Structures are given as structure tokens and as C-alpha cells.
Amino acid sequence: MEKYDIEILLGKILSGNATDEEQGKHQKLSQELPEYAKAYKQSQKLWGGAVERISNEDIARDKAKVQGKLNRALLSQIQKHKQKMAFYRIVAAIAIPIAIAVSVLFKLNFQSKNERSAGKTKIYAPMGHIASCQLPDGTMVWINSRSTISYDVSDFKSHERSVQLEGEAYFQVPKNQKVPFFVRTEIANVKVTGTSFNVKTDTESKIFETVLNDGIVLLRSNNRGMKEIKLNPGERAVYRIDRKQFEIQNVDAEMYSSWRNGEIIFRDATLKDLMLKLEQIYGIQVIFEDPEMANYRFRGMFSYNSNLIDALEKIKSTARIDYYIKNKKVWLKNETKKE
Length: 339
Fold this sequence. Notes:
2 domains; seven-stranded antiparallel β-sheet; Jelly Rolls; 22 strands; eight-stranded mixed β-sheet
């Protein structure tokens, strides 16, 4: 049985759309193929707990089990595509029949673009990739697709440590109470002494956001007169220039930082949310022929893929959506029913 057929079968079983014949096939595969049974159990766990919080331990355990079993079964395919990342899993929960895509995640190795001159360093993550680096003070940084950090080595030898950010990055900063760490952007700045947090800035939409995983961070916009605010673990702060204030909400921080592992976690997100992520990763523009499609709901885990066509094909098979591409624009439309 082909991998694609298995994905569709799993989706129908879990969404309640399987026929009697497909139910029988599912029972037979569960008994005869341990890999299929494992994939079903892990997909069932995600489906049943999608509205609840999935712990980091569950995600890591789930990924390790599926990767270990299915990677061996699909080794020949992986060897042919070492420069790609496949979807790990998409779970679509929308008004039309649902399918779950379960496939293999394998690590992508690539060279980020680094520029150095006279003590100044700039690191850029290419489109569709994630870069990582270690700063002079030991801080680990993950840089999202089409994002840049820059710093001067001399900034780590004085009374403070600081970097400039354009786009999105995740920081793990070692503690140093005497020398604070700053992330500076065009919209707002972050100050910490040691913590883990995600920062995203969009100069086009003029929105800045920070999500704190642990520790404490202090935020201040570049608007004169704004007071410094404190963020606690599990909180997300969003600053919009037009509103001139921070809005704070409690969130699952892992949802906003899982991208550093090549994953995007969705909890009842819309198709529009998913497409916005693909626009960021691949530098495309997505257009919905039917505006209602933007409201289709998704739950689950979606992994980076260096091939846009593969990503769109997986979404097509999952959500019964068709597409065509023209001049870096992706047009989405409802799949035409075959007579």
C-alpha cells in the first residue's frame, strides 16, 4: 500500500469518514504492519488531544517514534532528498471531509549566509530555511526564514550585550545579572538578563511580538514616553504602532517557538494562518479564489519543507483544495469534483 494511500486512510478513520471496506483495511493493516499501528496511535493521540495542551515531552516522544519507524521504511526516499524536509504531520479539521497527513521529518543541513567585517557580523536565514548560531556570550539564536540578526563583537565586551533583529528569532540567553542582553528592532526592544524567548517584528504590518518561554523579559517600544513593561513565562506581548500600546495574553509558548525545530504547531488555526506561514517561508503571495476557504480550520503539526510544491500537494490531499501558481502568486480554489 502506498504511503499516500495510508495517509488518506488514517485521515478517514480518525475523522469518521471511512467506509466499511476502509474500516476493514484499517483493521488488517493494524494487525499486520507495526509501523502502521504506531502511526495510527500517534495520529490518534494528536487528534484526540488537539484541543488540549500537548506537552513538549509528548511531541518529542511522538516525533522520535514515528521518525525511527517510518524513516527505516522510507530510507531510499530520504536518501534521494537529503536537502528537503518533508511534512511530519498535518491534521486538518474543516467543514469538508478531513484527512491527516503523516510522513517523515528528517533534518536539513544547510549553510546560512554570514557576513563579517571589522568585528561586525550579520547572519541571514535563506528563504525556506532556519539558521542558528552562538553569540560571543554563549547565547544560542535560531533565525527564522528570511530573517536577519546583526551584532558587533565589541557590544559583548562592555556594560551590555545587544543584537539587531529583522524578522523573527528565538533566543536562549545565559544568565548574567551585571550585563543585560538586548534585542533591538525598528519597533520595540527586549531586555533580559538570562532567559528563553521568541521575538518577531514585521515592519510592513508594523507589528512587534514577544513570547516568553521562561524567565522574565522587559519590553519597551521605540515610541517616546512609553513605559517599560514586564513579561512572565507563557505570556505573549503584541505591540501595534497604530495603537501605541502592548497587548498581553496567556498562550502556549511552544506554539510560537516550535519553528526553530522546523515545525509549526497549530491549535484550531485557519487556512489563512497556515498560508501566512508559507508566505513567510517561501516569499510568495497566496490568493483565495473563494474567501470562505480562508476560514477552514486546522489542528496539528506542520513541518518546514524546502519544496513549495510538496507543501501545497500535501495540503491539497488533506483539505481537498486545488491550486495553481503564476508569477510567485499561489491561487487556492476548491477542488473540482470529478464526474
